[in-house]
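Appendix B. Chain record.
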Amino acid sequence: MLKEAMQMDNSKEIKKMVKEKYGKIAKQSSEENKSSCCGSGPSVISSCCGDGKIDYSIFADDYSQKEGYIADADLGLGCGLPVDFAGIKKGDTVVDLGSGAGNDVFVARSVVGENGKVIGIDMTPEMITKANKNKEKLRYENVEFHLAELESTPLNENSVDVVVSNCVLNLSPEKEKAFNEIKRILKPGAHFCVSDIVLKGKLPKALRKSAEMYAGCVSGALQEEEYIGIVKNTGFENIEVKKSKRINLPDEILKEYLNDNELGKFKNDEIGIFSITVVGYKSI
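Structure tokens predicted for this chain:
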């Protein structure tokens, strides 16, 4: 009981700090966010805005040529293009978990069309406010944004065709609950497509700490096999990694901890920080 209580308190503290940090990010431009803090761990969040800044641009993919793209909704916080791999169809109901200012929501809306529906869920009030302002400018009637946590949405079970999420679930200290919530709201036979940050192999301790400071979301990242294991244990089927992209830390960071031989080995080995895009299906 004591251990569970401590874990619960820690989860609440992490969520509180993530919410505060993303509240600040919501008030910045995408250019400012390229040097913002986004870590999920207390040590990262408490320190990254003091001695140094986190460069999040090393994660982000370019959305600017996507149909439905709205520059004001792009805060440069993603680590993939989940809508590209989500198999969304016209008329679908799509949910974006951790929707921010609405970047993936508006791109998904261009796919589902007028007869579909896209719902954004975010736990940060400032992000919801920003997303709704973008929605009002566009006058979309089939887009909604709700203030809620990933692990507990206001949506009915078996009500959604596709769930997407972009570099958000790794921030959750309760990933099992988050994936169970995805499973709950999906219709039987429906699926999710999530882009997220994972680790492959064991990063040297000092290097991992530096990586967390440079790119904050690393602090919430699991080993890839552990991440996929959570998805499997939740009961999803036909799980597939659609895309895997290595996140390259600058040499000036790596050279602080690795000599030339170690640096070459590190770059050639399948060890490091990766963005993966994963699909999984709920059983019929």
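Further analysis of this model is presented in Appendix C.
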